[in-house]
Design brief:
Length: about 425
């Protein structure tokens, strides 16, 4: 069994960085091409389905009819997926019957655990849970919200919000980080505040499902992502971080170790093939996020491959082609895994290609006209349409937040989406 210590992470980050460099090219293998008529049809179906969803979300809540209302909302999303995204029946079932309940199940337990958690924090946790649960079919297990995935996903809204607070001194942040590291190593230092009490409890959720002696890889991964996050703090406002090599190393270590941890929590242990795939998928998602956040990173002085290039006036065409080519390498690794149906794998591929295309649409000012025209031909929606709908959703509080709010309407909820209710009860603190 491999040991996922920091030496392993650094070595894998170097291998992945080399694979990234090999992905540089002047062109990429695009997927399906859409005609203007096909895009117009997709956009019409998108708006039709979105209007139905929004209409349902705007209806006056009725506690007595909450179960029926929730079912109607789920059915709306099913129709949206089928008509606007052209997904097959298996993919629609995965989204509506498995992924959506993971998110709402996490939201319900998060509210029970800490009523003060904000909706953005809950959505942040849900996004991580979706990543971890998305790995489960590829590792031979069914999609389910487990105690360890719930605990890990809720950890980082607490730590990230603290570390991102500019009012807190660097000395206090380092002290907090050191105490958190001790808890991840298995120590139980007395808690100093509500935040630590919550985080220590969440770590215990992981320990209950995965005893340290039997599942060492789980805790090696937790320590690895903790160190990677400490290292990534240096990406903000440090002159040496503008170096492409340093940016790439930090992104590889942070993104790779993050999804490596998700994979370990999804399965308990990983073989070499699984760990390499999880790490590279994590790097792909991290770089996709960096592309998506390029404008925000520029404004706050955070150095990534994409923001560094954009700051010098370099067009992002080449880096994005490189990202698309790198995604094909990850796809080839996924196909080598023995689990997961062809339809499910295609759904995963579609998700990250969609992430990249939407990022291009949103950050269009950083690309050449020629590249935008070429990329847009391979999107089911015109880029101007995507930007307009993103603005609309942002003005309306965000569809995720509205959806979660509707699905959290008063109702006697049980543990339907949770793997082990006895372990979940330990969340009370």
């Amino acid at each position: 069994m491999e040991t996922f210590d920091w030496t392993w992470v650094e070595a894998q980050a170097e291998r992945t960085a080399a694979a990234w460099r090999q992905s540089a090219a002047v062109s990429t293998e695009w997927t399906r091409e859409y005609t203007a008529e096909q895009q117009a049809s997709c956009e019409h179906r998108y708006d039709e389905a979105l209007h139905t969803v929004e209409h349902e979300l705007q209806r006056e809540p009725d506690p007595a009819g909450a179960p029926e209302r929730k079912q109607r909302i789920v059915e709306c999303f099913g129709r949206f997926s089928a008509r606007a995204l052209e997904l097959d029946g298996e993919s629609i079932d995965v989204l509506t019957e498995e992924f959506l309940p993971v998110g709402t199940g996490l939201a319900q337990w998060a509210r029970d655990f800490d009523a003060a958690l904000s909706m953005p924090s809950i959505i942040q946790a849900a996004r991580n849970a979706w990543t971890a649960c998305g790995l489960q079919p590829l590792l031979g297990t069914r999609i389910q919200l487990t105690p360890s995935i719930l605990g890990y996903s809720l950890l980082y809204p607490y730590s990230d919000n603290y570390l991102d607070d500019e009012a807190i001194t660097a000395e206090d942040k380092l002290r907090f980080s050191s105490r958190f590291r001790s808890r991840l190593k298995g120590a139980t230092p007395p808690t100093e505040d509500f935040r630590e009490r919550a985080m220590w409890t969440l770590v215990s959720m992981i320990e209950t499902q995965y005893p340290r002696a039997q599942y060492p890889q789980v805790f090696e991964c937790l320590l690895a992502i903790h160190r990677a996050q400490e290292e990534s703090i240096g990406q903000v406002r440090e002159s040496h971080a503008g170096d492409d090599g340093n940016c790439l190393e930090v992104s590889c270590a942070k993104g790779g170790s993050s999804v490596l941890t998700d994979a370990c929590l999804a399965h308990g242990f990983l073989n070499e093939e699984e760990s390499r795939f999880a790490f590279e998928w994590g790097v792909l998602l991290q770089l996709g996020d960096d592309l998506q956040d390029v404008r925000e990173d520029l404004n706050r002085g955070s150095f990534t491959l994409f923001s560094t290039a954009a700051a010098t006036g370099e067009l992002l065409d080449g880096l994005t082609i490189q990202l698309l080519n790198f995604s094909e390498r990850v796809w080839e690794r996924m196909k080598q895994l023995p689990h997961g149906t062809p339809s499910y794998r295609e759904l995963m591929k579609m998700s990250w290609r969609s992430l990249i295309l939407r990022a291009v649409a949103e950050s269009h000012e950083f690309f050449s006209t020629g590249f935008l025209k070429e990329a847009e031909r391979h999107s089911p929606f015109r880029f101007a349409f995507l930007r307009a709908r993103n603005e609309r959703l942002a003005r309306r509080q965000g569809l995720y937040a509205t959806l979660f709010g509707a699905l959290l309407e008063p109702e006697q909820h049980g543990s339907g989406t949770l793997a082990n209710n006895e372990q979940m009860q330990q969340l009370t603190f």
